[in-house]
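User: We ran a pulldown and think these components assemble together. Before we commit to crystallization trials, I'd like a predicted model of the whole complex to look at. Sequences follow.
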Amino acid sequence: MATQIEPATQTDEDAFRAEVQQFLADNFPDELKGTNNALSGVDGPTNETPAQKKWREAMGARGWGTPTWPKEYGGGGLTKAQAKIIDQEFAKAGAYNPIGGMGVMMFGPTLLEYGNEAQKQEHIPPICRGEIRWCQGYSEPNAGSDLANLQTFAEDKGDHYLVNGQKTWTSGGQWADKCFAIVRTDKSDKHKGISFMLIDMDTPGVEVRPITMISGTSPFCETFFTDVKVPKENLVGEEGQGWTIGKRLLQHERTNISGGGSLARLMGQSLGDIAKKYQPTGADGELADAVLRDKIADFEIRWNSFLLTARRAMEESKAAGGVSEISSVLKKLGTKLSQERSELLIEIRGLQGLGWEGDGFSDGELEAVRAWLFGKATTIYGGSTEIQNNIIAKRVLGMLDHQ
Amino acid sequence: MAVLNEEQEMLRDMAREWTVNESPVTEFRKVRASGEPEAFNRDAYATMAQMGWAGVIIPEEHGGSDFGFLSAGLVVEELGQTLTASPLVMNTVAASAIVLGGSDEQKAKWLPRLASGEAIATLAVDEGPSHDPAKIETSVSDGKLSGTKAFVHEAHGADLFVVAAKDGLYLVEKGDGVALTTRKLTDQRSHADVTFDGAAADKLASGGDSLLDDVLDRARVLTAAEMLGMAQQVFDDTLAYLKQRVQFNQVLASFQALQHRMADLFADLAQMRSAVEAGLQAVDGGFGVARAATIAKAEANRVMHTMANEGIQLHGGIGMTDEYDVGFYLKRARVLEASFGSSSWLKDRFSKLSGY
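Assistant: Here's a predicted model for the assembly, 759 residues in total across the polymer chains.
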């Protein structure tokens, strides 16, 4: 499993590492050290400080926010080994990658695979520069787990489509510039009647309403389309190919939800260390509550083996040049364990771990409550755990389709 | 499956071919039927040693291949798949004690014989039915070791015992002052209480204070590797059964309630494999061994336990019969779960290692 660096390329890597260090010294503003506003900058409301803007523009110009994407579309054109060096050097310097969001995580890789040349030229560079925010038009009120039941209809009007219908659970829809959507172009075939198209959110007839969640936040929206004109050049792939393209995009989404991208960060603080601040310990420094101590160890062992599994899936995929079959379990395991961790954190903190607002709670305590509530969505969105189980049983284990 | 090098792939393929063709579960049935307390086939073990499997972690200068624990684990996993009864795991663990703690003389005397299969060694640590290396009464005076070790694995076939005494590990040869009381366990393998009464003992003096823990961690990862093979086989057998058994005019595999249980087991198995392989690799890398070995055995215990139970339940009544193999895996599973650290013992150790 040890990924050996070829000795021949060692000097090249040293040179590249020096290049990254120089880039950081020249461009990364000191005041941003240790902060990470990447997500709110991309998926949240626009509230960039001048320093954040400067950093995003510097990264965008260099293409290093999307290091392995092709250079001709604004990516870094780097190898995975070089991308890893960027990660390492950024971590050392306390720098973050300001280029992110759904464009980077899901839509970009899919468009690079299925888009035509004009579409790639138009849409990929702004993603690499972090200028355009994308949202996902997938779920509908009657198309959740049964996503292919979607009814939003795009009627062929010659040079354009006329789209009518409703999407829901549109993450960041209220802040997005554009939407990648799967819509129905043929009512006679459930799967082959679906097409993948790109819709400008400022087109007349698009209306967005945020949904307030149990966590008190509104990260999702309902999106209504009333006689929305979508030019034909915004169709990705062929008409009827939308289900195939849309599923491919979901693979990217699931890898990201499971945390495949940032393991070290996911590891988080040891629950045992947190517990020692909230719970009595004996003379030996061990938690006095033996039942809680056992529960924490039980969780942390499984959390460890999940992280090892995510690492193994990446290594196997890299070695085989394809997606490892165990990638299919990462989403269901990672989301379940994250929820368990949130629940344990509450048990450790008692009522101090259920604060809604006020000075009596630390920021960390309050954030944990919101994260616990919001985290309930993770086993539902991106293909619920039950859907993941269907996929594993059918596609990996070869069990027959249920009736 | 960890990404393997060419040598490791060859070793695994060879082990797979041999176990499937020469040592299927029917061979274990023969061993069981023979009723011999040592409970393994000497000819089969000689063949395994000839193929180099007894010396995988033994240095080349002492007749081994020095391929390391990940490689040893690959072989052990295959043996676990077909429940091959052999002292290979215990011999490897005992040999590792000599590699880590033996003098040049001790290494030269024993390692070549253990690698060639000419001699067999095992490990004797626990003095009660539950794993507890902190509770050892066995003592040595004037080179004579006395004490009783409980449920020693592969005691009947062993020529040499690596014995934990209060002040360290000792080599004790079977012979004068060593008496075995057979303890037949549910797995039908070799187990005995071994009483040492002033037996000649030769100390492993070079391994430092952590020698016992280091050796036990090697026992944990290799035991976990055997369990990994067993869990994989139960999963594969169960899946195959669900695909052919018909009820209500449908194969069972088409029922969603069963599909989701298999998906859960598949995910569990993935975690178990990751943890076990990481444990074996940690031993080879020499870094974070205690923690990685604890996680490996804890995950092996958790998943093997569930897998064996689900294997029986999903087979239905036929899984309860002696004619089907799945019950053998359940019985061996529980013996291995209790050996070198039960789940609760391992969680306690993990907490201690993590400082809470």
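The two ends of chain A are 42 Å apart (CA to CA). That may be worth checking against your pulldown data before setting up trials.

User: Thanks, that helps.
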